[in-house]
Amino acid sequence: MDILINHLLASQEEINMVAHDIGGPPAILWSHENPKKVKRLILLNTVLFPFKTPLDASSHLFFNIPLLNNVIMSDFGLKILMNTLTQSRNKIVKAPIQDIINWHENLTKKVKLKTIFDPLTDRKNNEVPLLANQFKKLAIQKFLIVAQNDPLCYQHIKKLQEQNPSVPSFTLDNCGHYIPIDQPNQLNEILLKILAI
Length: 197
What we know:
The protein is of the alpha/beta class. It contains eleven helices and four strands. The chain has helices spanning 2-8, 24-33, 54-64, 66-73, 75-85, 94-105, 109-117, 122-137, 154-163, 179-182, 184-195, and strands spanning 15-21, 38-46, 141-147, 169-172. A four-stranded parallel sheet has the order 1-2-3-4, sandwiched between helices. Strand 3 (141-147), helix 9 (154-163) and strand 4 (169-172) form a beta-alpha-beta unit.
């Protein structure tokens, strides 16, 4: 992130950082380390707390059983996962899902494993809760976008919302985990509203 953002930004430019799911922790960390370069930090349902929900337990089980994690890493497994966690059954959402599957097909097995397992290591699990405090201390504009029907990250974003009552938040109804796929128009309206603040 550091190399990419510094390559894209002029020295005095600021960015609007938008992050979702496991993208939230690195976005908070980068914002914490580079507050003068971040104008706004916008978190969509993101992972920040060590919850022990049945879904958390089952997902860790899936990722740690060799045959099951091979299925999850497969293009078929990703397609099933994305369709399961996307609320909309509209045919329009099938195109972006297929685009992601096509991109996934080109990754090596090593990269797929790293993408899935790196965020689940004990060291990273222990670091993540500390970022909630860093988020609270950030002296930049912060916003939360909450999808109530997200079975993976809703509890995380809700707790972050409760810990930061002064941070403006926007709620999306009828929206699962993949917010840009489920509610692209609603999400765009919210982002435009935030960027106008």
